[in-house]
Amino acid sequence: MEIFFDTEYKIIQYDESNHILIGSWKLSPTSQEYRTGMMAMIDAMKKYNTGRLVYDTTNFGIILEDDQKWSVGEWREKAVAVGHSKVGFVMSKDIFSKMSGENMMDMTDDKVSFGYFLHMEDAIRWVVNPQQNKEAGAHTINEEQNNNTIL
Q1: Contact in structure between 57 and 90 (CB atoms under 8 Å)
Q2: What is the pLDDT of residues 9-67, one digit of tens each?
Q3: What angle do CA 10, 11, 17 make, to 5 degrees?
Q4: CA angle 9, 117, 7 (to 5 degrees)
Q5: Structural contact between residues 117 and 85, judged by C-beta atoms closer than 8 angstroms
Q6: Which of 54, 92, 112, 151 stands 20 to 30 A from 134 (CA)?
């Protein structure tokens, strides 16, 4: 894996073998750190010419309401423009963190497929597998993946 962006709060890596980006939040970022980290993901999508992402949000915390609105508005518009198409979220087991992330995704349009997972391997498998490319905006509820998806 090639490291594209690495700070105390987030790392973005390019997985060349799967042609995907993996973003991991190392800790709960401030609003400015969140937006900087999200804009870095757009830069990574441009550089590596992929819109398929996996986000590890297990250490993320809660997304502030203003940041949620920014994410589903301004950020999403820019991300879709550079090819953002599919994202798997590795979710925290913390109920408040899960609710915050799911609430934000509920506000989105149908341009990007997304799924929630408990394990990184399952999220990667889903993002990489074109046969699991459900229509845009579909939530993943797949009991066959060892009950590792969330919803």
Answers
A1: yes
A2: 999 999 999 999 999 999 999 999 999 999 999 999 999 999 999 999 988 888 888 99
A3: 150
A4: 10
A5: no
A6: 92
